[in-house]
Design brief:
alpha+beta, endopeptidase fold (from Nostoc punctiforme), 42% helix, 7 helices, 6-stranded antiparallel beta sheet, Muramoyl-pentapeptide Carboxypeptidase, domain 1
Length: 233
Amino acid sequence: MSRFHARRRTLASIVTAVIALPLGLLLAPTSASGAVSFQNIGLHDRGTRVVFVQRTLDVPRTGTYNVRTRKAVKSFQRPRDIAATGVVNQRTWTALQRRWDRIQSVQVQQRRAINAKYDRIVKVARNQFGAPYQFGAAGPSAFDCSGYTMFVYAKATGKSLPHLAGSQARMGDRISRKQARPGDLVFFQSGGSVYHAAIYAGHGDIYHSARPGTVVQRDPIWSSNVFFVTLLR
């Protein structure tokens, strides 16, 4: 094996070992002897540890320990019987790590709950396939376009939508096509007015109740003049 390849293999082994380390060890400084020690973090300090503090306390992630970060640290320290110096010592750091773990746990639970709602929306939307279009109908055996989206969201999520495409379009948050997930709402417009509501099916398709003589079904999006709305984020 050449010396060059031996060096590459050694470097790859080191990188793999570092990636496998827990976040706390990656952020914690080490002493000259190699033992994990702690260096206080204060005004004007920079680096990944500062970003972690800012992220945990929901302040702008500048990477520099500024006055705003110090103020947030003081507010964090006071109710925890830690001297409100605004300096992150070992005790403050440990409390911040616990808070971040709780934040992560809550976010995981929230994502699971949202994913479950999306799954229910798609399931309910598909279950209505074959129901005929009927103007003014909102189920359970016939639908117009906004009646269909209203019925699906009420049954799948408990959310109450108005029986009018234009009014539904003003609810929730607009998102890009790339951000849209199966279960989000799709609205078609012409001349600035919304004329059709549907549920995104993914891969450029929608679930919808289109017009008289058709049934609830899956079709490709036929217009570029559409926008997407989410009610679940």
